[in-house]
Amino acid sequence: MNVENVxxxxxxxxxxxxALQILTLAALVLLFLKPRENKFLGFIDKHYLKLGFxxxxxxxxxxxxxxxxxxxxxxxxxxxxxxxxxxIPFIFGAAxxxxxxxxxKYTLPLLSVGFLxxxxxxxxxxxxxxxxxxxxxxxxxxxxxxxxxxxxxxSIPMLALTTFAALIAVVLVAHFYKKED
Length: 181
Fold this sequence. Notes:
Layout: H1 3-32, H2 39-46, H3 48-70, H4 76-85, H5 88-98, H6 104-127, H7 156-176
Helix pairs in contact: 1-7, 2-7, 3-5, 3-7, 4-6, 6-7
């Protein structure tokens, strides 16, 4: 894949991540304000298995595109996040197949651990000093800034954090949102 195509892919995923961050924040704010009935939360609640499947499958596939097609090898923190992300599309897929909405207890622990690893990685990526980074740039590392769009805001660690946060929001809305009749 040439450099120009990689840039366009980065811009597309970056714009999608920013939109997903806005939607995630809106969903969480609306959820915790405890509205009686909200169309946005109702949509997420009604379609949460499909949304979770699409989000998690997209994240897993684009992770593989970056590593296998573009050639950006993942650092060890990215691998740890992949461990907790890659089973999620299968869980959502099986839940869709069996029409089982009660998968929160299976997905939330995986998503939470992946989210915490991602928060750790993003903290050091954006605020850490070069000497204190958990994976330095001498080997395979996200800190080489292979993806840096929108003024450096969108990076591979930020894409991962956005995905985990959005999936957690979808699962929380499906579990806690109850519209009153």
